[in-house]
C-alpha cells in the first residue's frame, strides 16, 4: 500500500490536491467554459471535524489484532470515489461509516471475520481499493443488522504462482494494479488490465465489478482475462477449475464475475497473462465531426484488425483534453504486439479512417524494443493519455470549486447509437439547464465491439453550494432514464452498486432476478454480504 498518504475524501494521493492559489487559477480557466459563474475554492473539512457515528459494535478479542476502530480508518472505508462520495467526504459527512474495519492477512482471517459477522447479524462489506463510483462499498445497510464491518482485502496482495507454459498466474484478490504488475514483471509477463483507476483498484474489485480495462477491442473486460476464481461464501468455498474454455453448463465463474461482494469474498484468481508488448503503433485521426468518426470506428470494430486503443473523442472531449482545438473529433488509435511489427495493421486502419474523411495529420508513430529502434513520443495520443491519468484529480478540484463534474457510461448496438446519443445529449443538456443554469456534456468511446460502441459521457455544471447532491442526483437521474429509454445498459463497466440499482432492476429479466435471489439465499442465507446491492435487501 506504500506510505504516501491517500486522500480520505477525494481521489488519489493527498499531496496532489492543489493549494488554494492553484485552485483559484484553475477556477479562472473553468469559469468561462460554464458561462462565467464566479468560482471560489473552498477547503475540505479538517480531519478533526469529520462527523462519524459512534460504533454500535466492537471487534471481539479473537479478531482484535486484525481490526481497526480508528476514526480515520473508518472514514477512509465509508465511501467509494464517485462524485456524491467526494462531496459528502469534502464536507466531513461520514455518517454511513462502518463500525470497524478488518484487515485480513490470510484466507483463514477472511473466514473468521465472515463467521463472526454471520453469528452476530453484522453486515460485511468487501472492500478492495474503494474506487467504486456506484456506492458499492458504502454501509447503507438498513435497520436489520447490529452493525457493519468493512473487510479491506489489500493485505492479500501476492502473486502466488506463475504458469509460464499456459501463461497464467494465481494472484491474491487484494493486489492493486501496480502491485501485481510489479510481481509479474520479474517473469516478463503482464496482465495488461489498465482501468483508469489502475493505481488504486484491486484484482478482486475488478472481478467483483466486471471492470473494463484499456483494451478497446477483444479483451475489454476483466472477464476475458479470468481463468478461474476462488471465493469464500458463508456456505463454504466456491472454487472453479482452471480451464481455457468449457461448455459444461452455465459457467460457475459467471456467478463470481459481477457479484459485487454480495455472494462471497473473492480471495484469489488465476488470470491469463501475456508477453509484454515489444511493438507499438499509434496515431491520432482528426474527423470533421463526431458522426464521421463514429462511422469509421464502427468499420474498424468490424474489420478484424482489433486495435488495442480505438477511443473516439467528440469535439468537446478533444478540446478539453488538449488533443484538438479546431473543433475536430479525434480518434486515438493504437496497436500493440509482443510478436510482430504493426505497420500493415496501422496502414490498413488509416486507409479505412481516411475513407470516412479522417486525417492523420502527424503520421503514425511506431515504437519497438528492437535494438537500434528510436522511440518516438509526443503528439495528440500522449496529450490524451496524460489528461486521462490526471482527470480524477481534477474532479477533487471541481468539488472544492462548487462545480458538479461526473461521468456515466453505457453500451448499445450500432443501429441504435445515433438515437441514443442524441437522446442522451438532449436529456443531459436539458437537465443541466434546469438544474444548474447551464453546463457542458461531452462523449468518447471507451470500447468498441463489432455490434456496438460503449460511449462514455462527462458532464459539468455550476453547483449551488449546499445543493450539490440534490442537483447531481437530478442530473444522474435524467442521464440514466435517457440511457434506458434508448436501449442502452445502465452500465458497461462501472457496475451496479447502490446507485444504479433502480435501473438495473428494470434492465434484467424478472426470472433472472428470481434466480439471483435464490442464489443469494443459498450462498448467504443470512444476507450479511453487502446488503442492498444486486438483490434484496
Ligand atoms: C477515477 C476512477 C476511474 C475509474 N476507471 C474505471 C475504468 O477504467 N474501468 C472500470 O471498469 N472501472 C473504473 N472505475 C470504477 C472502479 O475503479 C472499478 O469498479 C473497480 O473495479 C473497483 O475496484 P476496487 O478494488 O476499488 O473495488 P471496490 O471499490 O473496493 O469495490 C467494488 C465492489 O466490489 C466488491 N469487492 C471488492 N473486492 C472484493 C472481493 N475481493 N471480493 C468480493 N467483492 C469485492 C465491493 O464490495 C464492491 O461492491 C473508476 C473509478 C474511479 C474513481
Characterize the structure shown:
With 537 residues, the protein is of the alpha+beta class. The protein has helices spanning 20-33, 71-76, 83-90, 107-119, 177-185, 203-209, 253-256, 290-301, 315-320, 343-354, 379-401, 414-436, 468-485, 501-507, 510-523; strands spanning 67-68, 100-102, 122-127, 147-152, 159-163, 168-172, 189-190, 226-233, 236-239, 265-272, 274-275, 279-287, 309-313, 329-337, 365-368, 403-409, 440-449, 452-462. The chain is built from 15 helices and 18 strands. It has a 5-stranded antiparallel sheet. The chain has a 4-stranded mixed sheet with strand order 1-2-4-3, covered by helices on one side. The longest helix is centred in the C-terminal third of the chain and has 23 residues, at 379-401. The chain starts with 19 loop residues before the first helix and ends in a 14-residue tail after the last helix. Bound molecules: flavin-adenine dinucleotide (FAD). Flavin-adenine dinucleotide (FAD) binds next to β3, α6 and β10.
